[in-house]
Specification:
This protein is of the alpha+beta class and 390 residues long. It is 28% helix and 32% strand. Helix 5 packs antiparallel against helix 9 and helix 6 runs antiparallel to helix 9.
Length: 390
């Protein structure tokens, strides 16, 4: 589906890693084939990494998964704090991933929200902490403004450029309209929403460059002002804050990394449903409910086994029609155009880094890509790899 050329030198940079030990094969001929094949030249290996929530439920539960080069070091965290006044800060997930040579660093920052009011009296009340559920106070902005004034300063970078992603604006508008209709159907006619998505190019002091991606969804509540006229309370929810830092000149490969990351991201519907139940309990003033006791179904427990590909990971949409965040991930992956579609034996679509002629998958969620027609991972590694088709 997506056709971008990958230079051989960039492939070597991206996928350079400590060579994984191959299993000893039974014949000398097979052993020779194994040693002849060089990772980063004859093949590359991608791995599905998984984020785990260790504290939110009655036992550890997977949150989401995504595909990156297998050699990368990936650290993730999910923290719960029901005492926070700001809703998004109650559950905070983050990811930091780095390539072995330090050429690339991916930073997925926790969601955040900032609030504002056009009414001076209400704004003063927000600043004084009189609102029961308020986030930090800052003037409203769209995604471009947030990259310039929020995200870039947070990662100590300068902004070379930042622009609205027009290809995704229709998706954001549809999400905003959906949320507005849901509010109206619930009788909240004062509510409206406005969304935006943006991409930025960053410059770091150490000479490295960066790609920044952000989505902002504004919730605008219009009501009579305390001093006459109408006023608006505005909540700006930054649902996506992602930065990929990389060595200067590697922009094309950086975009491919992000395209693969976005397109492969899957959200566990069991975890998502539990989080929704928690927030429903909070908003209905049921704070005394023990959120750790939210029950997970037997099916979910079976799907978090270590040696199977989860059913929810094989699907593009995992949380139903209301999965705006999941839809955004797919749209970002398509916008960056760094992946191609493959299909496994079950007909599931898998989006992997473009520019390769052969692809295989393994039952643990690993993928292998190669342009060498003589390469066969089943022979090289004496393992069970299934070929994918385009």
């Amino acid at each position: 589906m997506y056709k971008l050329f990958i230079a051989a030198s960039l492939v070597a940079v991206l996928f350079s890693c400590n060579a994984q030990s191959s299993q000893k094969n039974k014949s000398n001929t097979t052993a020779k084939k194994s040693t002849d094949m060089v990772e980063g030249k004859d093949y590359v290996i991608l791995k599905r990494f998984r984020i785990e929530d260790k504290y939110g439920f009655n036992q550890p539960l997977e949150v989401s998964s995504f595909v990156l080069p297998a050699s990368w070091q990936v650290n993730s965290s999910v923290k719960w704090d029901a005492t926070k006044k700001c809703f998004p800060e109650m559950i905070q997930a983050s990811v930091n991933a780095t390539s072995p040579d330090g050429a690339y660093e991916l930073m997925l920052l926790p969601v955040t929200q900032f609030d504002w009011s056009t009414d001076a009296v209400q704004l003063d009340a927000m600043k004084r902490g009189f609102y029961p559920h308020a986030c930090y106070i800052a003037q409203p902005t769209d995604a471009v403004g947030y990259i310039k004034n929020g995200l870039a300063p947070y990662v100590n970078a300068q902004v070379k450029s930042a622009n609205v992603i027009q290809e995704l604006q229709q998706q954001m508008d549809a999400g905003a309209q959906q949320m507005t209709m849901q509010a109206r159907q619930a009788g909240n006619n004062a509510y409206s929403h406005r969304g935006s998505a943006a991409e930025g190019v960053l410059q770091f002091e150490d000479g490295k460059e960066g790609l920044a991606f952000c989505t902002i969804m504004q919730t605008i509540v219009t009501m009579p002002g305390t001093q006459g006229g109408m006023a608006s309370n505005i909540q700006c929810y930054a649902g996506m804050r992602i930065v990929l830092k990389y060595k200067a000149g590697n922009n094309e490969m950086a975009r491919k990394i992000m395209s693969t990351f976005f397109s492969s991201t899957r959200l566990n519907p069991q975890w998502f449903g539990g989080v929704q139940a928690f927030y429903a309990a909070v908003t209905s003033n049921a704070q005394n409910q023990l959120w750790k006791q939210i029950q997970i179904t037997q099916q979910a427990q079976q799907e978090i086994g270590n040696n199977i590909i989860r059913n929810w990971e094989a699907k593009n949409n995992t949380t139903g029609n209301n999965n705006i965040a999941g839809d955004n991930n797919q749209q970002f992956g398509q916008y960056l155009r760094g992946v191609e579609n493959y299909k496994d034996d079950n007909g599931n679509t898998i989006e992997l880094t473009s520019g390769y002629t052969n692809a295989w998958s393994k039952g643990d969620g690993s993928y292998l890509l190669s342009n060498n027609p003589a390469f066969d991972p089943n022979v090289t590694f004496n393992e069970n790899w299934a070929r994918l088709t385009k």
